[in-house]
Structures are given as structure tokens and as C-alpha cells.
Amino acid sequence: LVAGPASADVERRGVCGPGTHEFDVDKEDGGFDVAVDLDGLRPGTAWVVALRHDGKIVAKRTLRADAEGDVELERFRPNTAGTDTFAFTAKRAGAAKVACSATITRS
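The structure corresponding to this sequence follows.
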């Protein structure tokens, strides 16, 4: 079976500092699986990743890039009335400037 447009993943990709980002929102039973993946970072570097759902911060973590230079943050979020807007920001710990961000809106 192939998922229809209403249940398909929505993904955003882009540059994030020295690496790349992938932001993915997958509609699941009663909510959404939301994932932020940062790749190609310097191993051991600390990154602050914040995830918002409808403007409210639902996760903010300082994470270290693993030996491959990857950082991951995943959360399940309930489906709210109307459209759901998800956004993330990521920056190197201690940096003033955001390295990357993206927004996805789902209905």
C-alpha cells in the first residue's frame, strides 16, 4: 500500500552550519511523529535543538554530535484542532546565531 497525501510524510531539508538538516513530520494514529536530524557536524560538538508545536516549545535539548557527526531529536505530538504547525531551530551551544530552522504545517 502507498500512503495517500493526508498521511504521507512531510520533509524539509537544508544546510545547517557545517552540515545538513532533515526535518520530518509523519502523521500517525492520533498525532504526529516529529523528527529533527542533523548530519555532518563535527563529532563531539554540542548543539541546542528546540522543537515547537503551534508556537509552544515542546522540547529543547543540548545534544552532542556522535562519532559520525549526527544529532537526533524525536517527539510524538498529539493532533490538535485545525492545522498543526511544527518548527525547529538548531544552533551550536554558546553561539548567538541560529544555524538552521524549518517549519512544517499539517492538517
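Residues 1-5 have pLDDT under 50 and may be disordered.
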